[in-house]
């Protein structure tokens, strides 16, 4: 993508000349001037080289009404031959936050690429990147009241309900930007050398170690670190992440408000385990790092390569990338410490489910109350209601993704999915009665558990995964709750969604049922295992209706 103030593209906006934006439908462009006419064009590239430019398009900028991150590039960046690549990477990171958060504030960050800290001292051994930031001591009640008043999402409401009834410290120490996000008077106060005082122009400083093998474009090679991931990590700390355990005194940081060791039990120490939770410890979103060699506000990091290479992991791996999203642990954390998401993340929708729960050979309905998370079974005879029973109540943060007999006891079980942790959980039932549970495999970041069915004919239900960004599906073969193997299934067409799986053509293989919400059209994709064989249109449903499940009634 190219962006210019000239329709002849005789010059370019810094960082936007031949910018590799990846396989995307849109792109936020930052660092522009309000009330200015800009021109942009794009072109595709493949193994043989770049294609032709698109038609030149023009837009006129208007003042931003949401969050703005104003980047200042230090001479350690601007003086390098690859300055444009470094600045473009930083602008890409900034665009994520500006498109994610709507707080009407401007955050001032100085960016550096050096082997020294802002004060000129060498970076510590093993330091890949670091942040310097400003924090304020705000009286406990002042910050808690401001945080409660800022609640806008279901996550906020859940998190605020878990706040303690009495003060855990005299003050809370939010970062300067975090304070302004909840309407407190906490201006920038950091100077370029890292000192803090009145008139300091920055909220914080982000430094990438120039001696580290960083790569400024994606995909990242196996021998390089992802510079954008590290930049986002340090930006998170500048704008609010961090634990009291990394600063002096006993006052809490905002993140400490959501630190637990078990349901109902807080842990504000470096002993034992701590985890991030927004429902009083009931759901583990991410474990906190407890190793003093890293930041205590970071996530506990597994060995490389990491199954979940979250942005805020305490240690990172070469060849792996990730970003902050509305539903990532980082996005949830930003939300509950006072930042406002442009669109609030929703718990995975309770998918409609039907199965024979009372053993009469006829499918029944599974109902779910969104407010209480209570489930209920409605027993049917064809389309006739014949009885009902309450089922188990789902835990906060988990959605019902499918119903199948995972332990092969002839009773359907619940398959649950948590979109924040990417976890799956099987609840074993006997009729409506909960009799046990076991965690299933975690799905990769960006994917969701979309359906359950037997795709390899071994009589054990399998997972159907779906990735919305690419519309790709995948089949994970299971033995009860244990992952055996997996592979990609067909990619869904644009505008279509997967609403159920069943054997529609009687060939002994499970098929996909698809729905296009724009025109009400349904379709069946006949599969053999994971392989697409053929397709056929099904009936068109009336306006205002949508198919939500499949069964032989």
How would you explain this protein's 3D organization?
- With 553 residues, this protein is mainly beta.
- It is globular and about 75 Å long.
- The strands form 10 sheets. The protein has a 4-stranded mixed beta sheet. The protein has a 4-stranded antiparallel beta sheet with strand order 15-14-16-17, with no helix packed on it.
- Helix content is 12%, strand content 31%.
- The model is unreliable at 345-350 (pLDDT under 50).
- 40% of the residues are buried.
- A hairpin with a 4-residue loop joins strand 23 and strand 24 (423-430).
- It has helices spanning 75-78, 83-100, 140-149, 154-161, 176-181, 227-239, 329-336; strands at 2-4, 37-41, 45-46, 49-50, 57-60, 68-73, 106-114, 129-133, 138-139, 171-172, 204-209, 214-215, 225-226, 259-262, 265-266, 275-276, 286-287, 353-355, 364-368, 374-381, 384-393, 399-404, 413-418, 423-430, 433-439, 448-453, 462-467, 472-479, 482-491, 496-502, 511-516, 521-528, 531-537.
- The protein folds into 3 domains: 2-61, Immunoglobulin-like (Sandwich); 68-337, no CATH class; 352-540, Hemopexin.
- The protein has 7 helices and 33 strands.
